[in-house]
């Protein structure tokens, strides 16, 4: 399965676009649509929305592969998109150890969907932005299956941003 266009748009909406590096709510250096920076000063002039979208398409492939590898139960496109958003936001490790994944792989779809709502904390404090994201994921999870158009595949990182090589895990380094 691949992330649909609407799934990609959901990630873009919740990540928000920033042309210049900033600290995310967890204090990590980030640019574009939630792209973590591992090297300070990599984008001194910022990036365009088009570059950010191409970087996101590459970054999201880790989340897509995580969902495909760890989920053993059949998924609708909407459920797949909700999980890819969830994994993109929280990471593979948290998903792999989650009650959500255990419930889903045990065929308990409703319980798995409800588990999405438990992941709305930053440093032990409820976060309204994460709450809204989790509610949107749950709404998508429960939405009737519809024909979804796949998001365009990622261009090579070198064509999106010439001096960038995207590494697994969303990191990057100068090429």
Concise structural overview:
Helix content is 49%, strand content 13%. By secondary structure, the chain is an alpha+beta fold. The two termini are 30 Å apart.
List the helices and strands and how they pair.
Layout: H1 5-15, E1 18-23, E2 29-32, E3 35-36, H2 49-70, H3 77-90, H4 92-96, H5 99-105, H6 109-115, E4 121-122, E5 125-126, H7 128-142, H8 157-160, E6 164-166, E7 172-174
Antiparallel strand pairs: 1-2, 2-3, 4-5, 6-7
Helix pairs in contact: 1-3, 2-3, 3-7, 5-6
Structure overview:
The chain is an alpha+beta fold and 175 residues long. It has a single domain (5-143), classed as Lysozyme, CATH 1.10.530. It has eight helices and seven strands; from the N terminus they run αβββαααααββααββ. It has helices spanning 5-15, 49-70, 77-90, 92-96, 99-105, 109-115, 128-142, 157-160, and strands spanning 18-23, 29-32, 35-36, 121-122, 125-126, 164-166, 172-174. It has a three-stranded antiparallel β-sheet. Strands 4-5 form a two-stranded antiparallel ribbon. A two-stranded antiparallel sheet has the order 6-7. It is globular and about 50 Å long. Residues 156-175 have low confidence and may be disordered.
């Amino acid at each position: 399965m691949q992330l649909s266009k609407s799934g990609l748009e959901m990630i873009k909406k919740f990540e928000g676009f920033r042309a210049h590096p900033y600290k995310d709510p967890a204090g990590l250096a980030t640019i574009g649509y939630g792209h973590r920076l591992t090297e300070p000063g990599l984008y001194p002039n910022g990036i365009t929305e088009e570059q950010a979208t191409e970087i996101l398409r590459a970054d999201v492939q880790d989340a897509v592969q995580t969902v495909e590898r760890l989920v053993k139960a059949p998924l609708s496109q909407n459920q797949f998109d909700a999980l890819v958003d969830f994994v993109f936001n929280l990471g593979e490790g948290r998903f792999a150890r989650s009650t959500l994944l255990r419930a889903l792989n045990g065929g308990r779809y409703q319980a798995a969907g409800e588990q999405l709502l438990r992941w709305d904390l930053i440093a032990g404090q409820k976060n309204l932005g994460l709450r809204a994201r989790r509610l949107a994921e749950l709404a998508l999870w429960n939405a009737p299956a519809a024909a979804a158009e796949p998001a365009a595949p990622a261009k090579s990182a070198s064509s999106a941003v010439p001096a960038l090589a995207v590494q697994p895990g969303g990191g990057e380094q100068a090429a």
